[in-house]
Amino acid sequence: MTAPTEVQQASIQTAAFRRWLYRVSQKYVHWFFIAPALLAILAVAIYPIVYSTGLSFFRVSFDSRERPFVLLENFIWILNDSDYRIVLGNTLLYVLVTVSGAFFLGFGMALLLRRITVGRNWLRLILILPLTIAPIVVGLTWNWMLDPLFGLINWILPGLGLPPQTWLASTSTARIVVMLVDIWQWYPLVFLIMDAGLSGLPRPPYESARLEGASNWTIFRRITLPMLRPVILVVLLLRTVDAFRTFDLVRVMTDGGPAYTTEMLSMYLYRTAFNFNKLSRAGAGATIMLIVIGIVSALMFRFLYREVERR
Amino acid sequence: MQYSWGQRVVAYLVFMVMAILVVIPLMAGLLTAFKPQIIWVSSPPIWIFTPTLENFEFVFVQRQNLLHLRNSLIIATGSVTIALILGVPAAYALARFRFRGSKGLLQWLISLRMIPPIVVVLPFYVLFQTFDLRNTHIGMILAYLTFLIPLVIWMMRGYFVEIPSAMEECAMVEGYSRLQALRKVVLPVVTPGIIATALLNFIFAWNEYFLALILGGRNTSTLPVATATYVGRARVEWGNLFAINLIIMVPVIILTIILRRQLVKGLSLGLVD
Fold this sequence. Notes:
The structure holds two protein chains of two kinds.
Chain A: H1 6-55, H2 73-80, H3 82-113, H4 120-127, H5 129-132, H6 135-145, H7 152-156, H8 174-199, H9 204-211, H10 216-244, H11 248-253, H12 265-275, H13 279-310
Chain B: H1 5-32, H2 54-62, H3 66-96, H4 102-112, H5 117-130, H6 137-162, H7 166-173, H8 178-207, H9 210-215, H10 223-228, H11 238-259, H12 263-267
Helix pairs in contact in B: 1-11, 2-11, 3-6, 3-8, 4-6, 6-8, 7-8, 8-11
């Protein structure tokens, strides 16, 4: 063996360098794919979150250039605002009713779809149509349906022996009507996803349960429900989070009225910021909302991941 | 499984009722778009009339809502395209590589979907003024990326996970680099998924109202904002309103029918097939 010449030495070094570079790039190759999206998200999502959280510690409005630091003043103000508490109650009720309503109706319809053989795909397709229609269009369409003077609903009701109503203007009906329209639009999501979940269940457990002579109810409770748990969690997670943020539908149907019975959190914050010019108070409210939604979704997500990994 | 006749009849009846509840409001609304002004509101409702296009002519020619249609198309197409360019590679990496923090990153990404839009809208409002992005399509597209990028990543991850990684490994053993394997082997297989993701996200961007309402200026308002302008304090111009609603709704219904098999995967963020 002769000693390697200088040229050989250099080529060995570059080869080593290239091997090293290759190893490093293999090890971190995923970051080349992820980095662009991550940077964009940092710019358009994280920065705004940080900004609006920061905003809530200052006093900011559109008509003043000065932005004094006020620490928790905005938080204290909003937590003491009686409207805020009403709105919080409204929103929680809305989430509870619409999510559980959509869930039970959607799940029920998905189970019922099993009993249908002819025209199954058509019926499913018709039922899911509201799902992708803009909430604002849904709201306006139902405004028209519910109009006290010429709406189809009031035209049909006397035929059923019921008196016509001013649905969206009276405090006793507005809330429930808006919730029903929300359910009308969103139960298809539960229906669609649960139907897919049911179709994906394995058959053998059912067959053996039948051989054992188990009743339908037992089979549903002991086999169907446990196997569907991850799907149920996904659906509830998606629906809960979206219900919390509801804006379009309620804004166009009642705009919070009558007498504040349908005012939602997002609408209240919108008004605080843009109608009442209290940007930083809205920021404080938004920060609280972010924390609440974050905790709720983190809990649900923890649950979900455990379920998915167990499988 | 076997069901009795009684059970089946009940199921059909229930489905009929629910289908009617969907079809009647949508049809009645759409019909109004073709009604002449004198019968926009009428009690009892008039079902048979000579259809007219005067509402469409009014909104698109006299009121220049064509501008809003254009804005809707530009903003939705632009934001979805950018979201795909950024999101698809990220989705691929998150589906293929297990690295430290990959699971946490995914969870974190899904939690972005839960940001209340009001949190995003306040800073954007201020930023628009600072960087003079008011009334620009770019500004709106940036705002839409907030919710589109995480959605694209999650949906596309669902499609990439389905492709066995053996496919690329074979290609790489044959001498392809990872990028070549990605382009020549994975991408063709995943194209239907990309199309479905693109269309579904287009629907989301197309329907978006909140950001458009607050951030949209005179030259960037979209159709959902335009349709709400026909709700006046004293009266609502129903025929004109439904003419725009029809333009918002019909493309979406067509896309829904095209996408019906991909809808579950897309709407459940790729978590359920």
